[in-house]
């Protein structure tokens, strides 16, 4: 910890807070106002005041050499073993996740920074309690792109002035940038970031100002930082051009953050969607979103990055693998056909699958920036056409949401933010969908396809059933788990009268 929280690093992060924390607070207040207006009207639209930006002929700068080929990106938390496995995965990029795949225990926040520090310098090793040794292989290694926390999350372990908690995003960005920017530059790379959960171009403007200030402060040329923005909220989908434009010389692309995007649609408009597994990327509103993303990015010279393949291959069940990898292939082939420049996987065993598909699509080119999409004409109605989503709500879907939420939240509270459940890598985004669908189905009085009314009583009965199975599985280990806390938390964010904006905010109160 002392190597990360040096007096100089703390002062740098404090300086960022003095300059930018108040603006963060103002922008969060604007989110609430905009959401209330959307709830009143049932609409969002492209901004009339930024039409010149959308119709302008501007582009972002060419990417640095180690960000020109992004055909396969592996995502995962900055836990020590996972860091080494990601660096050895053969992926082109590692999304080093300090956000949705990471529980912000203070040990994780600082431990992740230590692991990044050593990964940048190629010195990281790990010896497991079972006696297995992990170290970096011969390479080549993926380019590291760090995802800090979203603007909405605080960091109570660092306080400023009158005891106000730090802004999680500024803590994560500031510590990584301070310790690693110059080292990365000297190694022929640079400080690269994925920016999550933004809801407007004004939030991108704040990030751009943070970048300029940080670079000036450390004597690093402006434009050295490069940022890829996750378009994972419905209002951001209406401001893709504007977000890229605000980031100016720092922009390198957009990513289709599909699970958070679904959550945002439910949260913004309180819509009723079918079972999570039934809402695929071919649903009309999801198709409009990804088509617009590719067209916008390539028009601006920015990369369009595809969504997550969350399947975890099983080394014991080849039949499960065959079916799931077939679905992964279908998903990645669709993205490659649509013009995406690469895509995400959650497990090293999926890197070859994704790479093979994009190798075939790219040929000798490192990306598909030359593939313009003049055929794409997406309207506001297209982005909002949720009613056309095929599928239904089923008994199994309700139970699955309850189980995923409980199992994920229990692991999150123990410090694990990326959890394998039934061969899928679940993170905070998928848990958000699970609990938000439960909340919405109850408040809309939805019945399942089988005729079961979805009520709080049903959910509590399903909780009983799931936890009975867990007790049987864990045996004497159950009392040491946090399933009882997970149940209380789940009911707080799924069964309460009011809808909590993010489950991670009340969850944060329950961890060290």
Question: Your description of this structure?
Answer:
The chain is 48% helix and 13% strand. It has helices at residues 7-41, 51-55, 80-87, 106-120, 168-186, 201-217, 234-237, 240-247, 258-269, 284-299, 318-338, 351-362, 380-383, 395-414, 428-443, 456-474, 483-494, 504-508, and strands spanning 72-77, 93-97, 125-127, 133-135, 143-147, 154-160, 164-167, 192-195, 226-231, 251-256, 303-309, 342-345, 419-421, 424-426. A hairpin with a 5-residue loop joins strand 3 and strand 4. The strands form four sheets. Strands 1-2-5-8-9-10-11-12 form an eight-stranded parallel beta barrel, surrounded by seven helices. Strands 3-4 form a two-stranded antiparallel ribbon. It is of the alpha/beta class and 512 residues long. It comes from Catenuloplanes niger. Belongs to the malate synthase family. One of its GO terms (molecular function) is malate synthase activity. Residues 2-50 form the Malate synthase N-terminal domain. This is Malate synthase.
Offer a concise description of the structure:
The protein has 512 residues and is of the alpha/beta class.
């Amino acid at each position: 910890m002392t190597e990360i929280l040096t007096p100089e690093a703390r002062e740098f992060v404090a300086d960022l807070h003095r300059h930018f924390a108040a603006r963060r607070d103002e922008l969060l207040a604007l989110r609430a106002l905009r959401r209330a207006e959307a709830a009143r009207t049932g609409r969002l639209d492209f901004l009339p005041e930024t039409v010149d930006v959308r119709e302008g002929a501007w582009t972002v700068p060419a990417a640095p050499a180690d960000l020109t080929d992004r055909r396969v990106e592996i995502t995962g938390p900055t836990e020590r073993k996972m860091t080494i496995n990601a660096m050895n995965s053969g992926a082109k990029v590692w999304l080093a996740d300090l956000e949705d795949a990471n529980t912000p225990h203070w040990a994780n926040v600082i431990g992740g920074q230590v692991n990044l520090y050593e990964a940048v310098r190629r010195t990281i090793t790990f010896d497991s309690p079972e006696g297995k040794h992990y170290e970096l292989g011969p390479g080549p290694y993926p380019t590291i792109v760090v995802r800090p926390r979203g603007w909405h999350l605080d960091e109570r372990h660092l306080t400023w002035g009158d005891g106000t908690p730090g802004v999680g995003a500024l803590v994560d960005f500031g510590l990584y940038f301070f310790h690693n920017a110059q080292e990365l530059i000297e190694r022929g790379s640079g400080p690269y970031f994925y920016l999550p959960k933004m809801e407007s171009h004004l939030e991108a403007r704040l990030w751009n100002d943070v970048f300029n200030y940080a670079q000036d402060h450390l004597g690093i040329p402006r434009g050295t930082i490069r940022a890829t923005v996750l378009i994972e909220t419905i209002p951001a989908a209406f401001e893709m051009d504007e977000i890229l434009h605000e980031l100016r010389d720092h922009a390198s692309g957009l990513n289709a953050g599909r699970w958070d995007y679904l959550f945002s649609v439910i949260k913004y408009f309180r819509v009723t969607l079918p079972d999570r597994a039934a809402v695929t990327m071919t649903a009309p509103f999801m198709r409009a979103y990804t088509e617009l993303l590719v067209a916008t990015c390539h028009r601006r010279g920015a990369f369009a990055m595809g969504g997550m393949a969350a399947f975890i291959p099983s080394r014991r069940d080849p039949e499960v693998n065959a079916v799931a990898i077939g679905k992964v292939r279908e998903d990645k082939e669709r993205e490659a056909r649509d013009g995406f420049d690469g895509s995400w996987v959650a497990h090293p065993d999926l890197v070859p699958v994704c790479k093979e598909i994009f190798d075939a699509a790219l040929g000798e080119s490192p990306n598909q920036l030359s593939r313009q999409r003049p055929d794409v004409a997406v309207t506001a109605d297209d982005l909002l056409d949720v009613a056309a989503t095929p599928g239904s709500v089923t008994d199994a879907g309700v139970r699955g949401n309850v189980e995923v939420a409980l199992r994920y939240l229990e692991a999150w509270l123990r410090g694990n933010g990326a959890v394998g459940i039934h061969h899928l890598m679940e993170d905070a985004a998928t848990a958000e969908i699970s609990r938000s669908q439960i909340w919405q189905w109850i408040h809309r009085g939805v019945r399942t396809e089988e005729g079961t009314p979805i009520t709080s009583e049903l959910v509590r009965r399903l909780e009983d059933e799931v936890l009975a199975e867990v007790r049987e599985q864990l045996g004497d280990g159950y009392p040491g788990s946090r399933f009882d806390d997970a149940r209380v938390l789940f009911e707080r964010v799924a069964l309460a009268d009011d809808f909590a904006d993010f489950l991670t905010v009340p969850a944060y109160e329950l961890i060290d």
